[in-house]
Every structure is written in structure tokens, then in C-alpha cells.
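Pasting as-is:
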Amino acid sequence: MDTGYDIRFSIIIPAYNSAATISSCLQSVLRQTFPVFEILVIDGLSDDDTVEIIQSFKNPSIKVTSEKDNGIYDAMNKGIWQAKGNWLYFLGSDDELHDENVLKDIVDVINSLPNVQVVFGDVVTTEGKRERYINYNFWDLVIERCICHQAIFYHRAVFNVDFYDTRYKVCADWDFNLKIFAWGVFSQYIPRVIAKFNTSGVSGQWQQHPEYLANFADRKKLVVKYKSSLYLPYYYINKLFRKIKRKLF
């Protein structure tokens, strides 16, 4: 059981040419009332001032690695390898933790549930829309949508079996969450906003991404992969309903 200061958060931030946003991102983590164990910025060899801005913080809890990677999930996997904390969280370099008590509230949940392995909440988009994941389970992940990585905290042990599959350029987090929920991971929803989520990122704009069609096919494959083919019609019906709803409203 992890309690109090036995809980060590590793905040993993993939970054690439993030000079315009990385400072606000880091500040949102550093202002937390519960101390952060480490902040790992995995930079994809930016050619702007991203690394210089990170280094200007001169904070020993911030560690930056700058090298070429194979996309965001490769960067996230590198962060997992480097992480020394027992709770991991992934924040985009253009995202921010919602307020200074996010980590404190997550700690309260962990302390109240000795065996919890995943804690997740909601996010607010840059347009002010709240994405809610109330009591999400495996079937919600299949039929609805992925819990975005800005909304979810993982115990380190969850990654002992597998990491993110870098064959997926946009959907690897959905694949990973389906995998652990299919395993029956002990998860807990918390009714609070975790992060401000910038929808201009790749995962936020996956339908406009140049690899959208290929990844849409990947999403369908994932539904079948996790032995949920009986729910495939519901997946398509739900997608159609959401599309019609957007056009009407």
C-alpha cells in the first residue's frame, strides 16, 4: 500500500518544439501542493528553445532528455523506462494540470483504496468543454472513446507487463487502456478535472490527423482484438449517432 509521502509521482512530459507552452506546463506541475518526485521531459530533439526554457528553471526535480524519437508513444515509453516514481502520469507539453490540488486529491484517493492501480478523472479542453469519464469500464472504452492520458494516473506496476505499442501513431493509449481494463485492473474514477487539455495536439485532433483513416481501421481492429466483437455493431451505431448529433446541434 502506498500512503502519504510513500507516493512518488513521476510526471512524464513528451515534448517537441514546445517553446511557446512548456513553461506554463511545467509551472502547473511545480505549483502542486503535494510535492512532485520528478518531472521527466522527453524531448524529440527540438530545434527551437524548448530545452533552454526547461533548463532555465534550474529545478533538480526536472530532468530533460533530448534525442530523436519515433513519435509521442515512443517518448512516453522512454519516460516509463526512466521513471523512478511509483505513480506515473503523462502530460502533454501544451497541457496543464487544472489547479494546484490535483496531486493532493489523487493521493487522497490512493490512500483510501489500498489496492487501486489506476485513478482517473475528467479533462477540460481549450474550448472549455469538459470531457467526462464517469465510472468508465472496459465496455465504455470499447463503445465510447479512450480516456485521454491527461486524465489518468497509473501505478508503476501496471507497466510491468507491457508498454505503449508504437505501431499505433494515434491510438496506442486506447490500446493500452483496453488491455489493462480487459485484465481487470482496479480503477477508480474521481469526479474532478485533472488537466486542461489542448485539443490542437495529435491525440486531440485524431480525426483531422493525416493518418486518420489508417488509425480508424486500427481502432476497429482493437475492438475485435479484446474479444468484444459482439459489441462491434454498438460501436458503429454510437459513432453514427454522435456524428448526427454534431450536425444537428
